[in-house]
Design brief:
The two termini are 33 Å apart. Helix 8 crosses helix 9. The longest helix has 16 residues. Helix content is 33%, strand content 19%. The chain is an alpha/beta fold. The strands form 4 sheets. Strands 8-6-5-10-11 form a 5-stranded parallel sheet, sandwiched between helices. A 4-stranded antiparallel sheet has the order 1-4-3-2. Strands 13-12-14 form a 3-stranded antiparallel sheet, with helices on one face. The structure holds zinc ion. Zinc ion binds next to loops.
């Protein structure tokens, strides 16, 4: 998977899902691993039947997955510093856990049934790890006519200081659908997954996940799942184009939305050329800049972040 985006079965797969163990813990249980109990938030939720325990060259694999071995990349650092072997095997989840989790996070079957019920033949998947700003709203409106419907599926990542809370993301998207977009063409669902910050490879993984949730299309935007300028602006879209006939889902390559003061609306370089000709009139829509402002209680203007949405979030804890 790391080298060629391919499983031993020959199927396409862009990013290995591995269980890192750490050298210390591995040494204490070495020789006795046939199966492992899996815990989530303190509850035993299933088993891992162990097929394989193996070492990898973490720097080499980092280069393949993240495109760099630079330790200032948070994904690389996390991956390299874990050390120790990886464990491969078959995950078996207990049915009561699957039942309990599906009430908070829809399973693929549940989402696919919903799509079927609406008789949608084509569905565009949209993913983000942020509370939506005007740019997200623009993408959701701009592409809705290209399919029967859209699946908005924000990723609820692990709790990290400075990141939006799960409650904030849930509240914001529910507000957006109920008050702005309408539920006729949009289905909302949430995906629990950690952020890998792996840029292009992660974008492809997100596409494959949305395919498995019943989407026919997936939007990849500018610097999708990127981190700190390590990837080219549209590198994820280029990698998606390379694997276009193996992904099993069509990619919509979205240009970066920005606010143009001359056109007085959210635009993109396909809509106007003011980003290059009149750059001083352009406001870039950056989630990290918006988060910084909100953390310091600095007002974010309505053309960047919907003021009514800000009010809807006023009673919610925004950040971890
Ligand atoms: Zn313009």
């Amino acid at each position: 998977v790391a080298a060629d985006c391919e499983l031993t079965s020959g199927d396409f797969f862009p990013f290995p899902i591995s269980l890192d163990f750490g050298q210390l813990r591995y040494t204490t249980i070495k020789g006795s691993i046939n199966s492992l109990s899996l815990y989530w938030r303190g509850n035993n939720i299933g088993m891992l039947k162990v097929f394989d325990v193996f070492e990898i060259d973490r720097l080499q694999v980092s280069e393949q997955l993240f495109g760099t071995t630079n330790m200032s990349h948070v994904g690389v650092r996390d991956f390299v510093q874990r050390r120790g072997p990886l464990i491969g095997g078959k995950v078996c989840l207990f049915t009561d856990f699957v039942g309990s989790i599906s009430s908070r996070y829809d399973t693929p079957d549940c989402v696919k049934k919903n799509i079927q019920k609406r008789s949608w033949k084509t569905v565009i998947g949209f993913a983000t790890r942020n509370v939506p700003h005007r740019g997200h709203e623009y993408l959701l409106r701009n592409y809705q006519n290209q399919a029967d419907g859209m699946l908005i599926q924000p990723t609820l990542a692990q709790k990290k200081p400075g990141q939006y809370t799960e409650t904030a993301i849930r509240t914001a998207f529910k507000y957006l659908i109920q008050s702005t977009l309408g539920s006729e063409k949009y289905v909302l669902s949430f995906l629990p997954a950690r952020s890998l910050n792996a840029g292009p490879r992660e974008a492809l993984l997100q596409a494959v996940i949305r395919r498995n949730y019943g989407c026919s299309h997936f939007i990849i935007g500018r610097d999708h799942s990127g981190f700190g300028g390590f990837y080219g602006q549209y590198e994820a879209q280029e990698l998606a184009a390379k694997y276009a006939n193996r992904l099993g889902i069509k990619i919509i390559a979205a240009r970066e939305p920005f606010y143009c003061g001359i056109c007085n609306r959210i635009s993109s370089d396909e809509m106007c050329d003011h980003l290059t000709t009149k750059p001083s009139n352009i406001t870039r829509l950056s989630s990290s800049a918006i988060r910084s402002a909100q953390r310091c209680n600095i007002d974010v203007p309505d053309h960047v972040f919907d003021l009514d949405l800000q009010s809807a979030l006023s009673h919610v804890q925004l950040f971890y």
